[in-house]
Amino acid sequence: MSDRQLQDTVPKEKTQGIKSRTLLLALASTGGLLLYCLDAWIGAWIYDQGTFLTLLLSPQTPLQIVFRLTLVGLFAAAVLYIVKQHPIGRSAQRDGEQGLGLLATLFHSSSEAQLVSNHLNQIIDVNPAFEAITGYSREEILGKNPNMFKSDRHNSSFYGDLWSKLQADGCWVGEIWDRRKNGEVFLSRMNIYGIKDSEGKISNYVAAYSNSSQLSEDEGRWKDMAYTDPLTQLSNRLGFNEALFRGLRTAKRDNKGLAVLYLDLDRFKDVNDTLGHQAGDQLLCEISNRLQGLVRETDLVARLGGDEFAVILSGITNHHAAAPIAKKMLQHIMLPVEVADKSVHVGASIGISIYPIDGTESEDLIRKSDIAMYEAKKRGKGRYHFFNQRLEQQIQLRMELDQGLCRGVKDQEFELVFQPMIEIDSGKLVGAEALVRWKHPSRGLLLPAEFINVAEETGQIIALGEHIIKLAANQIACWQQLGFGKIPISVNLSATQLKRHDLEKFLRKVLESIGLEGRYLDLELTGSQLTAGLPTTIEQIHRLQDLPCSLTLDDFGTGYSSLLYLKSFPFKKLKIDQEFIEGIQHNRQDRLICMAVLKLCAEFNMEVIAVGVESKEQVEVLRELGCKIAQGFYFSQPLLTAEFESLLKHQTVFSR
To answer: What's the farthest any 2 CA atoms get from each other in the chain?
Structure first.
């Protein structure tokens, strides 16, 4: 209600009475003041009691004192009463209350969303515009921290800078992404101010969100740029995450399922490397179109980056519903694609996780579909694989092994065992292969198959490989010093070790530090190690040739083995894989392969060792074919250091 309205509600008779009394009091006090001044003037002129000013300020008699004080008090009271009764005075008295009411009206009627928090940044009020923009009611968010609206678009440093500026300058102005109650993110221009109390400390924060039409247009453009892959026009990783967040909210609300497919192209790098990146881009666009043509409008296909795609399938509740779609995707991806005037073929590996079977949060489902995808690749590519708890346990175990490997090398938890190599005709011990074992503090004795792959993938094979070589070299030198004979011991080199440019320098340093002749340390490599980066590998192996160590080609005839290795690398020994030995006594093909390898190696002046010999019959066939040396359980299982040392000491002859 306005001041005018308030004045109109007072009766006129009462108003006139107030005015009359006020006027009489004012006239009386004014007259009294004039008499006071006259009395002082008369005293100065007639009675010569002093100057006018002196008598005015300094009355001489007690009566004058009382009289003049009474007049002054009466005058002051009249003035105050007049001011108080005047409309301006009444207005000033109510300014504080009316000001607060006005601010409250502005706060609640503003079209800008506004939020007020206390010094602990707990929300104490929001206006209706804020409720409309965010979708939250006032009651839902009172007492909570505004970080509940975080969109995850900004990192911690963004918020750190915001608060630093707010504390230093008392305000912050900028654009910020927040999240509505329904999960949608929105862009706004925000002004945040710190309100200080009488002591100069911030007692409250006020945040105002601008939501102009121009900002809405900017928000749309930002979304298009931020959510879309510019090459394929599919959703990118950010858009995928946003869509999955909304999809999960819908699935939870409607009690339905949802599948996440993580897809990685196979052989895409070959296309890029041979035909160029432009051809690779054309291929990605074609694959994108094919994938989009296989899903419904309620589903989503996204390109996460490189040759990785992800798909959200709504309404999928089990493996049986997702499998046909994944299978169809693989079939369409494998169809030839025309790029750069050539017909190219690629494949894909797909990992699948399902809500709510495999998880209820987006990050969890993405991670698990990624794990399943790598399992599909490991199983041969060109297939799909569903996530399961066994994969989760394997990942956990791999993490534990990774953490334990570094500790194991430092704490001397690794030891060597030695499997003898026997001369078939004489039964004499002519060498041995050093094999590593891990004496794990909680899991017991671990074989290489249980940890070597993890060591390779994490790079810890470098430290472990160096440790193994040092153990083997020191043990050989120790046996020679004890006079137990001089036989070569072979150790396995990993692919990662082979890529090290300082490998030759490291081996030379080890040999020189213990005074060991290199011919007693054999280095074994497999065909698969030689395939990756062949030119670099050839150069590395030729550097190793400068060492007196022998090089042995292991597992020949399987995997990536090639006759090219015999031509390109200076191998002195070759091991025939167990696959050809285990059926040699009754399989003609195995015998022919072994015979061909033996004849070929004889021409190359290479020594051949048959691996995995487990029976007397196998030994006899190998003897007939002309194989000189064998290794396997028929002669001996891998032996501990003390057991192998006993063989050396007594010059044991094995049964032939």
So the answer is: 162
CA 65, CA 552: separation in Å to the nearest integer?
128
Q: Would you state the structure tokens that stand for residue 267, as one six-digit string?
A: 């052989």
pLDDT at 33 over 90: no
Provide the residue ranges of all domains of the chain, joining segments of one domain with +.
3-93, 110-220, 228-387, 398-650
Tokens 């000189």 found at: 628
| 493: DSSP letter | P
Q: Are strands 444-446 and 489-492 parallel, antiparallel or unpaired?
A: unpaired
3-state secondary structure of 233: coil
Interacting residues of 7 by C-beta distance below 8 A, sequence separation 6+: 87
> What is d(CA 194, CA 656) in angstroms, rounded to the nearest whole number?
92
Q: What topology does CATH give the domain 398-650?
A: TIM Barrel (3.20.20)
Q: Please give the structure tokens belonging to residue 381.
A: 């590519």
Three-class SS state of 346: coil
Helix (H, G, I), strand (E, B) or coil at 30: helix
Single out the residue of 361, 231, 367 nearest to residue 302, CA to CA.
231
pLDDT band for 3, please (50, 70, 90 cuts): very low
Q: How far apart are CA 317 and CA 310, in angstroms?
A: 18
- For the record, the structure tokens of 649 come out as 């000491």
From CA 642, how far away is CA 648, in angstroms rounded? 10
Identify the bridge partners of residue 313 per DSSP, sorted by sequence position: 259
Q: Which CATH class is domain 228-387?
A: alpha beta
What is the rounded distance in angstroms from the CA atom of residue 59 to the CA atom of residue 43? 10
Distance CA 485, CA 651 (A): 9
pLDDT at 19 over 70: no
> Between residues 368 and 381, which one has the greater pLDDT?
368
Report d(CA 130, CA 71) in Å as an integer: 61
> Which amino acid does the sequence have at 353?
S
Helix (H, G, I), strand (E, B) or coil at 431: strand
Where are any strands of DSSP class E within 150-246?
A: 171-179, 185-196, 202-210
DSSP code per residue over 242-286: HHHHHHHHHHHHHT--EEEEEEEEESHHHHHHHH-HHHHHHHHHH
Place of tokens 């400068």: 546
Q: In whole angstroms, give the CA distance from residue 317 to residue 354.
A: 7
If 0-12 CB within 10 Å is exposed, 13-18 middle and 19+ buried, where does residue 499 land?
middle
Provide the 8-state DSSP code for 615. S
Considering the domain delimited by 110-220, tell me its CATH architecture. Answer: 2-Layer Sandwich (3.30)
Six-digit token pair at 36?
A: 């006071």
Q: Quick one: which of 462, 455, 447 has its CA closest to 402?
A: 455
Residue 643's contacts (CB-CB under 8 Å, 6 or more residues apart) are none
Model confidence at 341, pLDDT cuts 50, 70, 90, reads confident
CB atoms within 10 A of CB 519: 13
Please determine whether the domains at 228-387 and 398-650 fall in the same fold group of CATH.
Answer: no
- Of 630, 654, 637, 495, which Cα lies nearest the Cα of 575? 630
